[in-house]
Amino acid sequence: MTTATRVSASAERSTTAHVVWASALGTAIEWYDFLIYGTAAALVFNKLFFPSFDPFVGTLAAFSTYAVGFVARPIGGAIIGHYGDRLGRKTMLVATMIAMGLGTFLIGCLPTYDQIGVWAPILLVILRFVQGIGLGGEWSGAVVMVIEHAGNRRGFYGSLVQVGFPVGVAASTGIFALMTKLPEADFLSWGWRVPFLISILLVGVGFIVRLKLAETPHFKEIVERKEVLAQPALEVLRRDWRSFLLAIGITVSEVGLAYLLTVFTVVYATTRLGLPRQVILDAVVYAAIVEFATLPLAGWLSDIFGRKALYLAGGVFSVALAFPLFWFLDTREPALITLALVVTMTLTHALLFGPKAAFMPELFRTQVRYSGASLGANVAAALSGGFSPLIAAALLAWAGSYWAVSVYIVALSVITIVATLLAPETARDSLRS
Questions:
Q1: What PROSITE patterns does this protein map onto (predicted)?
Q2: What is the pLDDT of residue 4?
Q3: Cα–Cα distances in Å, from 19 out to 25, 32, 216?
Q4: Residues contacting residue 292 through CB under 8 Å, at least 6 positions apart
Q5: Residues 6 or more apart whose Cβ sits within 8 Å of residue 254
């Protein structure tokens, strides 16, 4: 190897490392912004924004506004993905951070129902919609940015971006756990606002880091060849529809599990089981910390054994653990609850979410990769992510027991297993252009 070649290789590794770091940091901040809403919906929004309802109905109403963010995500994915495939990955990643940061900060500034009446929940819904638009283009842009820099280790490097999710879960849940130590009056008065307001500082850091990113070589190549498409999002639906449907199918279980494990379990433990908020919040934080290590492991294994092997394993474990999860929660023992969430998060969500950062974009060619990954991930999120806590709460009320929620988890998992079996193995192929 010549000196020039070594220098080039070192520079490439440095660029990849910077892209991974910037993407993971930004994604962690974006997930923090998006997820603190879910925790607030489970703990406080039913009291402050929907106080005229029965407590359970208020919770359903709060989760309905939570779902609005997921309805907005496909819209954001289509718009931001379109411009990400036309103007570049970097530009849109900066834009999504601004949208998310402002939406989150303003939620922390909102007057409550007692102060401005019905305008409080209306403004809450509008700002949640803004959050959804931002996140709709955030995740897909971050993973596309990384895998288009990553060479043959796309599974591992992509999974490092996924670490942003458990970091966001741990940070958002952890700060709410800290705030709940305040006297109840202080928590309901100003304590719940703190997690939203401090996000503006985090977004400032992420914004500066992302401004220094380099555009991906794959996007530069299609620009040089004048192969940038005029309507990439429409092209996904017209020519890449099979990949689009497979992307939705492989995602519905993972995204549903993410919010059932981090949001619905909080409601189930505090309202159904009557446990202190601290018990379940701590368990969620510990599970997220463990996933910090298991996500990169899953991504690395997908480079060795293939994306499909990890996805099939995650789907099968999701079916197997759908009932035992609630058996352990119903013991009301903090140690067993923590163990249940740690094991379930590791063997289900981590095995699916770790390889997803590579698997999803690999299904699409460069000209439509941002749009395809955005639409596939966000349509699935709208179908099973945002509505999962709402559906689970409704199923619990209807059945009077957790079994209906477990059946729902099994149904989502079967869809993912079937989609994975139909999908091509992409781990050993070069990115399509």
A1: MFS, SUGAR_TRANSPORT_1
A2: 35
A3: 10, 20, 9
A4: 163, 166, 167, 170
A5: 314, 349, 352, 353, 356, 416
- 3-state secondary structure string across the chain: CCHHHHHHHHHHHHHHHHHHHHHHHHHHHHHHHHHHHHHHHHHCHHHHCCCCCCHHHHHHHHHHHHHHHHHHHHHHHHHHHHHHHHCCHHHHHHHHHHHHHHHHHHHHHCCCHHHHCCHHHHHHHHHHHHHHHHHHHHHHHHHHHHHCCCCCCHHHHHHHHHCHHHHHHHHHHHHHHHHCCCCHHHHHHCHHHHHHHCHHHHHHHHHHHHHCCCCCHHHHHHHHCCCCCCCHHHHHHHHCHHHHHHHHHHHHHHHHHHHHHHHHHHHHHHHHCCCCHHHHHHHHHHHHHHHHHHHHHHHHHHHHHCHHHHHHHHHHHHHHHCCHHHHHHCCCCHHHHHHHHHHHHHHHHHHHHHHHHHHHHHCCCHHHHHHHHHHHHHHHHHHHHCCHHHHHHHHHHHHCCCHHHHHHHHHHHHHHHHHHHHCCCCCCCCCCC
Rounded to whole angstroms, the Cα distance separating 161 from 26 reads 9
Q: Which residue has the tokens 């299904």?
A: 363
In the numeric block, the tokens 């368990």 are attached to 283
Task: Encode pLDDT of 182-222 as tens digits.
Answer: 888 888 889 989 989 988 887 787 777 777 777 888 988 99
Tokens of 362: 């690999």
Specify the amino acid at residue 132.
G
Spatial separation of the C-alpha atoms in residues 312 and 275, rounded to whole Å: 34
The arithmetic mean of pLDDT across residues 9-38, rounded, is: 72
Task: Write the single-letter amino acid at 78.
Answer: A
What are phi and psi for residue 103, nearest 5 degrees? Answer: -60, -45
Predicted TM-score (pTM) of this structure: 0.82
Structure-token pair, residue 364: 């699409």
